[in-house]
Amino acid sequence: MTALTGVGVSPGIGFGPAYVLARETPVPPSDARHGGDAQAERARAARVLEQVAADLEERGVRAGGEAQEILNAQAMMARDPGLATGVAALIDAGGSAARAVYEEFGRYRELLVGAGGYLGERAADLDDIRDRAIALLEGLPMPGLPSQAAEPYVLVARDLAPADTALLSADVVAAFVTEQGGPTSHTAILARAMGVPAVVACPGATSISPGAPVLVDGASGLVRPAPSEEEVTTARNAASAREAVLAAATGPGMTSDGHAVPLLANIGGPRDVDAALKYGAEGIGLYRTEFLFLDRTSAPSDEEQEAAYLDVLNAFPGGRVVVRTLDAGADKPLAFLPPQEEEPNPALGQRGLRLLRAYPQILNAQLGALARAAAKSSAKLQVMAPMVATAEETAWYVAVCREAGLPSAGVMIEIPSAALRASDLAAEADFFSLGTNDLAQYTFAADRQVGTLTALQDAWQPALLDLVALAATGAAERGRPCGVCGEAAGDPVLACVLVGLGVTSLSMGAPALPAVRAALSRHTREQCLLAAQAALTAVSAPEAREAARSHLPGLAGLAL
Ligand code: PEP
Ligand code: MG
Fold first, then answer.
1. Pocket lined around ligand 1, Cβ cut-off 6 Å
2. What is the reported pTM?
């Protein structure tokens, strides 16, 4: 079989036998009918759906952290009253419980896929509940995965549900490969958090023969079934040589001439803290709190929020923890809000800070829980708002935070207007954090979910670098720090350029930290400045990258 190509979403080399997850729960035939007692059949369906929900919750308790939040949300889907009513109606019309579950879940699935974005990516969660329920109703073996193995395997699947991945660890899984899913799918998020190489959107992956050896490059997206011994050795040697080089750079982030650049981690919840500590994060630069809120039919309680925040703060005594208040709306709707009006351009709609202003009770509850958690910990809590467009919005947010007793309040710079008027925003905010993912999306009018537009989402685009420079200069004029927490911060070459543009800290998925630490430690601040100037004079992203590299000689020994 020839090599396959997908989208690399978690870097590293993985090698092992393929474990191909065949989700082959048979489809109950369309004429499958129950024996005549609709009431008993309805009760059977309800009992099984509850059993599936309880099992998911129990797996969540065993997994803990962010996985538990995801599994609890999935359990809530299994208990959805709308789905239960639909299943009951199909049983009343004569269908068997298994067929009714199959049809009703299929209908709901189409709605999710039609909604696209974050909701579309939840379709795998729904399929998983359906298959578990049908297996129970038909007395079939439960779909699932070995959580122990003689040697780590490459997990290959059409898509993966949180219930599949939650109990897996890096000791068991050498790499993930899925045919579907995007960079925001659960597979991508959890793989990055586990530090396991992953490739998604890889057509043909499930035709790899079960047990066949597979080599996976989570950076380039290359998946090679049955590689030659030489290919495996070369990839492994390159990976271990790189690891050895990277491991040599330790300690806090700084340039070779001692200019400090704190290196922080991006996390989605307490579960990701271990990886942040393992890779030497000096603190948290972006805690995406939306995982606490999405997929829920009621808001998380004050106590639940406080506990989740305190878990993270306690991991960094005396250190910095930057928490982003809820970034929901658009493709990340909140089920517990009244139905929102459908928006023709959701990414340009009521999201981020705009949604929090419309529902101040959500923001106030979150800030209250954060203030109480901060009072119980020695970590330095900073809060920041997503999707800020103007100085007026900045002033409003900072005032609300101050009122809640939070002394450090900043804003994300991810809309071009905010970068263009950075000095005005910096007059109001305590700090900036640049969200280069959204900043690219809005600068180039290129939806970040659309794979075919990746060239326009490249943070090396000179127009994006211009905006970074404007934001950093505006912040410096007012004596404010300006970090980067978008994916750009995890590119070791770009990290040097960002420092040269005046960025003061870098936050990234934890496994990217060693390469960025090493790249900074091999260059002076002056070299970073020259690299940044060279990149700014380029007229395309590839030229900017090349121009910058020519000023960063230390990269040659880094095997990047
Ligand atoms: C960004 O937009 O760069 C960012 C860090 O936020 P998110 O990816 O969560 O939108
Ligand atoms: Mg963003």
1. 286, 288, 327, 414, 435-438, 485-486
2. 0.73
